[in-house]
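Progress report, Aim 2. The chain analyzed during this reporting quarter is listed below.
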Amino acid sequence: MTTGEHFRIETRRTPDRVVLSLHGELDLASAPLLQQEIENAGADTTAMIVLDLKELEFIDSTGLRIVLAGHERSQERGQEFALTRGSEQVQRLLTITGVGEHLRIIASPDEMLV
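Predicted structure tokens for the chain:
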């Protein structure tokens, strides 16, 4: 588990994916923690990285940039990348920025992709 003052990440590894469960607020102060965890997850040979946003209360533009960069890095490595739905604020930001249209959103971190 990686933790900051108002943000923490729980990492769970299965044979086909790494799930990063985000809790709290993803902002300028906590974004480097997520960036590092995405890099660590990408070093695995798993087929997929999932960001579980269920417990994420807030995300700002810096956090959004890290999510997009993580998606890009996953594509470069040939890995799938997906998110679960977050709080109302998180979903609103994804919708307003159009980011939600470019990222795969799944119902649960263990959902199978087709």
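The domain at 2-106 is CATH 3.30.750.24 (Transcription Regulator spoIIAA). Residues 35 and 66 are 6 Å apart (CA to CA). These observations will guide the mutagenesis work planned for the next reporting period.
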